[in-house]
Design a protein that fits this description.
The protein is mainly alpha-helical and 50 residues long.
Length: 50
């Protein structure tokens, strides 16, 4: 998990766990990624129904 966290967000889990501002940055990034994925999914679904 440490490697994935560092690869995805540029920080390790220890830093994520100990620094509130870093944790908030990571969570904002995750939320943005989720929203983007939902838009892509909706677009694919829409195209499949044509």
């Amino acid at each position: 998990m440490e490697k994935a966290m560092h690869h995805s967000h540029g920080i390790g889990y220890a830093e994520y766990a100990s620094k509130h501002n870093k944790r908030m940055d990571v969570e904002k990034s995750r939320e943005e990624d989720y929203r983007k994925s939902q838009l892509i999914y909706a677009d694919v679904e829409r195209k499949m129904k044509k």
